[in-house]
Amino acid sequence: MRYADIVLPLAQPLYTFAVAEGVTLCEGMAVVVPFGRSKIYTGIVWRLHDRRPDFKTVKTVSRVLYGTPLLDERQRRFWEWVADYYMCTLGEVMRVALPSLMKPSGHGEEEFAADEFRPRREWFVALAGEALTADGLAAALERMGRRAPRQREALEELAALAPDGAEVARSRLAADRTALALLVKKGLLTCIEREVAPGPVTGGAQFRLPTLSAAQRKAAEEIRAVFADRATVLLRGVTGSGKTEIYMHFAAEVLARGGQVLLLVPEIALTPQLLHKMTAHFGKAVAVLHSSLRVGERYDEWKRVKNGSARLVIGTRSAIFAPCENLGLVIIYEEQEDSYKSENSPRYHARDIAKYLCAKSNSLLLLGSATPDLESRYSAQIGRYKYFALSKRYNKMLLPTVKIVDMKQELKSGNGGNISAELRDELAENIVRGEQSILFLNRRGANKLICCGDCGFIYKCPNCSVSLTYHSSNKRLMCHYCGYSRRVDDRCPDCGGTLSFVGAGTQLVEEELHELFPRLPLEQVPGNCDCSQEFEERILIIEGKHILICHGHTLNVKANYMSLQYAAEERKVDAALFGHTHRVFYATHNGVTYLNPGSIGSPPYGVPPSYAVLEIDGGTEEIAYD
User: Of 44, 54, 114, 323, which alpha carbon lies 20 to 30 A from 375's?
Assistant: First the structure.
């Protein structure tokens, strides 16, 4: 008897199962196996051998899924490298690498069957027998005459749609099933049920590329020269310099050679507009992979990548596991972002995995950013990467004017609120001009914490030991890590003293804005928005100039979405400098860079340059980064 070592989606080593006689297995296949007393899992066959485990009873593989291997030899070696490098199990790699629908599980067969994905199937019909020729079709129609009008209509309809005998989906026909069944019985039609291939992303004509400026063409030519030596390239370009257009040109070259391209983005929120831009140029070749897709959509996109019908993949960090069998180029968009690093096992960094994949597949790696990661910048400095820079914006667009406002001076002048006089005046002028404004504050809720002014008591989460954030919308304290919430006491629960509300969040700023501009419509862009319909609607509202002032708490205000903004404000800029890591200076520089030049610095031609106000609470720090 043969045995199979199988990977299960657990933080466990490989388990060995017996392979029943007559069952054909090969490495990389997905199988259904019993586990424990009643649990049933989907596993991946990793090795086949004849060595019986030293146990009294060895469970048997229940059945095979999908018919063909999910993983080839190269992908299995890749999984092994990830497990070894990040010191995790192959099961943990399996959990992030495969769509959930491809690894169903359950307690018992009934629950497993409910979790198991069943691809959409459809019946297809085609002309057969004598109906394939014009004379034979005419003879068949004449024999039916008036005796079988519905069969005659069905045969005429199908002949009009596919006279050459091509298959037509039964759903496209007006004929009923009974008439079609009788035609099949007479040998005039064939009818077969088949799995429906996932629908491709629709878009414009392929390889219709944007025109590059002189600076972009120069950078592209230099990058192309070093790509000949398979060198890793770091492209630094100020926001609005046109890095995305360069990515598109290199992607087109790889696709023209028959290769596949993987474009990684740091946030799900960046995918909708980027997907729209890429499909406008590459059409049906584009697929998108990220965790906010519906389970069926993610399966369909994964399958399109696997069978090669999708050759340009856009996705977040987990898309690095996409089954690209002919990978030619990996592009990492905003490569400095921390979101490329997974905080759960396997604790991988998509950029590091991309380096391995490109080395093993002889592919190209292009890292792009306006503020490159410190490690990447150092690698370029010592010659490990090839470094290129775009120092000017596309078509000579101007950078915004930036003014720093000290909020301590505002307090001395009698302004105890969170909106400075400078900002208030700028907002008022924007309203008169009919322009938009962005207020950016990286803090959710109304107040950072609530404490007692007498004894120093602070409300903390019992699960996470962090201070609870006060939300004025529901008048509750909430933990943004685990979701714990509780009501607020009237007095300090320890000493009965007076409670103080400390630190302003987006809700408090919104309340102040309503007081300053009572009739003005406001829109808050939350950071937990993804590319769902809700986020799309918010973006359409903002881009459609329905919102005159919007404020949020993440870098959703990047240039990718706020292309129509003309002024911005970032509050508490210096607060980020007092973080608990050695990277706070770089992180603050990164955030300020993307807020000011990025989200507000892309006005239409002929429009005055943007304006930015940065509010601080006192003493400034110079952030130098090159």
Answer: 323
